[in-house]
Specification:
This protein is mostly helical and 155 residues long. The protein contains 9 helices and no strands. The chain has one domain (2-154).
C-alpha cells in the first residue's frame, strides 16, 4: 500500500511539473506569435487534457484496461518523438497530442461513467463536447490520411 501511495505522489508531482511547464510554454509561444496559429484554441487545451489523463489514471473507477490506454497517451504527451515533434515545431507540436488524447478519452468513455471523467476535468467547457469537437476537427488539424493511420494504430 505504501509503495502505491509513493507512486501516486510521484506521478502527481510529475504531472504538476509537466502541466505547469506545458501551460507556460504554450501561453508564452502564443503571446509571442499572436494570430499566427489557427489552432491556438486547441493548443490551449493541451495542459488540461494532459491533467485529465493523469487524474483518470489514478481514479479507482476507471477499469485497468482503460488505464493502460491513458498511460500510453500520457507517455505520448511526454515523449519528444511523435508525429509532430515539439522539438522541431515548438508548442504547435502538441496538436497531435491533444487529438490522440481525445481519441483515447473517447474510447475510455465507452467503459467509464462520463461523470467520472467530468469530475476530473479542470477546463472551462463541457469535456464530452470538447472531445467530440476535437475529434470532429482532427482530420482538418492533422490531415485525413494521417488521422486515419493514427486511429488504425490506436484500435
Amino acid at each position: 500500500m505504501e509503495e502505491s501511495k509513493n507512486t501516486n505522489t510521484a506521478l502527481t508531482k510529475t504531472q504538476s511539473d509537466f502541466y505547469h511547464r506545458l501551460r507556460y510554454r504554450i501561453r508564452k509561444w502564443l503571446a509571442e506569435n499572436p494570430g499566427e496559429h489557427k489552432w491556438a484554441d486547441y493548443l490551449l487545451l493541451a495542459p488540461d487534457v494532459f491533467h485529465l489523463l493523469c487524474r483518470l489514471l489514478l481514479d479507482e473507477d476507471v477499469p485497468d484496461r482503460e488505464k493502460a490506454k491513458l498511460l500510453a497517451a500520457i507517455v505520448y504527451y511526454m515523449s519528444p518523438i511523435d508525429i509532430i515533434p515539439e522539438l522541431l515545431f515548438g508548442p504547435v507540436g502538441y496538436i497531435d497530442d491533444v487529438a490522440i488524447a481525445c481519441y483515447v478519452l473517447n474510447s475510455v468513455l465507452t467503459k467509464t461513467d462520463p461523470d467520472v471523467v467530468r469530475k476530473h476535468w479542470a477546463g472551462e467547457e463541457d469535456v464530452l463536447e470538447l472531445i467530440e469537437r476535437v475529434l470532429a476537427k482532427a482530420d482538418s488539424i492533422l490531415g485525413s490520411g494521417l488521422w486515419a493511420r493514427i486511429r488504425k494504430h490506436l484500435k
